[in-house]
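Recap quiz, item 2
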Amino acid sequence: MTWHVSEDDLRLYAQGELAPPLLWSADAHLTGCAPCRARLAETADPVALDAAWERLDAELDAPRPSTVERLLVRLGVADHTARLLAATPVLRRSWLLSVLFLLVMTVLAVRMVGQPMLFLALAPLLPLAGVALSYGPSLDPTYEMAVVAPLHGFRLLMIRTVAVLTAGLVCNGAATLALPGYGLLAVAWLLPALALTGTGLALSTRLGSVLAPSLVGGGWLALLAVGELQTRTHETLAPFTAAGQAAAAGVAAVAALLLYQGRDRFDARPLGGFRDGGAV
Amino acid sequence: MTTASASASGPVPGHGGRGASGPATVTATDLSLRFGGTRALDGVSLRLSHGVTGLLGPNGAGKTTLLRVLATAVPPDGGRFTALGHDPGTPSGRLALRRTLGYLPQNPGFHPDFTAFDFVDYVAILKELTDRTARLGEVRRVLEAVDLSEVRGKRLKRLSGGMRQRVALAAALVGDPGFLVLDEPTVGLDPEQRMRFRELIAQAGEGRTVLLSTHQTEDVAMLCHRVVVLARGRVRFEGAPAELTARAAGRVWSSAERDPNALAGWRTGMGAFRNVGDPPKGADLVEPTLEDGYLLVLDGDDAAVGA
């Protein structure tokens, strides 16, 4: 045994106040360390000790959390929130690898062509798609159970949105670092990404979790196509100019406000019906 | 009283009267819901009390829609209902009902990488059990209740269909809900699994209000103290299973050949034909079953009138 549970942690453990991941470490250690168990018995009053043993019993029954969950808890995320995030389809490794692959190919294409527009056009769509697919009947197999659960639908949506948005922005940010020659222009995807994601979410209570982001994504591509037609060669497309960025920031702010105002709608009815097609 | 007098929103046999056991815990009045041009629910009124109530009906009858409405997954277009004293028409009433609701959907989705324990734990979090110790204890309790403690660490994709259904039932039981809504939980199970599931549902019905949607009249005969028959979005019958069986009294007969005038007829294992409908004079009447009563009620209002 290379270490033992400290007096402070033992006292907190006996009082049921030790939080993960220290709690998990203490649980694992106490099962194999008789001296620490004896110290725990001296530290705690009998009632608290019984509760601690019961807790230990329950912990031992619980399967080991996944790598992602353990990482999230170590980053300070509450264990129940980490479990909610672990159930987010688009945070699975296969999805993240697909996004990374897409970004790598895009960066390579940008470097070959010597023009960043392909990346700037694509990058805002990735967080939009990721957030759209993280909540709703299309990809969340437990959506119907989540809808009737007392946990506020908007809260679940926001937990997943923040996580998916963070993952998406980190991926995009890494791709941006691979395009150092374009200066600030290479981060001009950020505000459009927030605007598209916010608008897609705000519209999803009315149009459903598939149609809303699809329309928003389609609108973005249409905007770029129109901009391309009206812009001379080697000029920056309108959404990535200073005025375009200001407009994107405005849209993002308005969308966030509308989303917040309509938060109760996420509890009132399902987004666009269920997987079996019934009940819209 | 006959079902002929039962309008879409009006009373049906047994409604709130004979056969009812205990005070109503769930009361629905004139519920309606339309999808596009289809009336999925057309003025459904019913009362549930403690114990297991069976919901029978053919495909497309509106059973799943009714269960989704009662489980607060979908709001009705019209009508109202209260459950355990809560009115889900208001945000606070809906939240209060959800806190005491257990719901097993027809297709309970599973995250394939989750173990049985992970999945039930996930549902427990959705049910606001955030204290880790209390939550883990509750997950253990419900997994024990459905006899799945031994496989708690197995991934769901490696469990049999019957075991996955039991995991879903365990998830529905988290938090000891007062109102349990089960949508065809025995479908696709083999006879042994079905019997095991019936035991679990019977246990769950003790001290709770359970609404069980099923295609199996056997489930109703074995488990339910009340039965509701739904067809084309309307309640066709509501009462005790014995009352539904009694609908077929004097209307089931045996013959050497299939009677062309019978509503339904089939050759039994003994070789004779069992006919359901209006028997000819001198017919060899036999004891009816719940299924016979169900068939007659489904035949439509006319058949029910004659009962």
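Chain A has 15 helices and no strands.
The radius of gyration of chain A is 24 Å.
End of item.
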